[in-house]
Known about the structure:
The chain is 34% helix and 28% strand. It is α/β, with parallel strands linked by helices. The strands form two sheets. The chain has a six-stranded mixed β-sheet with strand order 6-7-8-3-9-10, with helices on both faces. Strands 2-1-4-5 form a four-stranded antiparallel β-sheet, covered by helices on one side.
Amino acid sequence: MIEIKNLTKIYKTSRKEKCIAVNDVSLTLPSSGMIFVTGKSGSGKSTLLNMIGTLDNITSGDIIVDGVSFKKFKEKDFQEYRSSYLGFIFQDFLLLEELTVKENISIALKISGSEDEEYLNEIIKRVELDGKEDKFPNELSGGQRQRVAIARSLVKKPNMLLCDEPTGNLDYKTSKQILDILKEESKTKLVIVVSHNTEDAENYAVRIIELMDGKIVKD
Ligand code: ADP
Ligand code: MG
């Protein structure tokens, strides 16, 4: 369970100007289910997700992970949180172009200290990439690339998947396939999807959190 308390992010854009990207947001998130964070461009969705994912510093407020406050986290706790609690999925996939599908996925497994070939194959099947193991990213469609990214994040057996516009570069049919995979994963873990697509949110979310100017306007 993730508790977010009075979370605020202020970017200093110049010496005088500042931007309040996330403004005093409080939320309690369960340990499974598919939750969408929606809102217009610039409403603070990515900033909120990035603070949960420790990609961005918190200006004020707190995040409490399974009862332990970020304020109590040591460097080692953050490392463990990043390596075994979190999985990230981005709009532009971020694959290593010089590695094959299988290598892109297995490298994440190796980093987490395991070389479980059987588990690797199971994950590849789960995202329906069997038969594509030896292809390079530039030989894949957008949907296939995103499925490599999902598999790469799943090998760590994360408790939570943070997805920032995961279907932003995909067509309607491919988007549905990706969201179906994420929905399936949300049975056993928390999946947070940042999206400006309200139709996807209505079709897939168990809960929709809408942001405007860094504040929650609907939950
Ligand atoms: P969204 O993901 O909903 O489009 P963001 O979280 O990216 O919104 O941005 C929220 C606000 O914070 C926007 O006004 C944006 O311009 C600002 N912002 C985001 N990142 C930075 C940054 N690195 N420096 C300054 N301002 C930023
Ligand atoms: Mg964004």
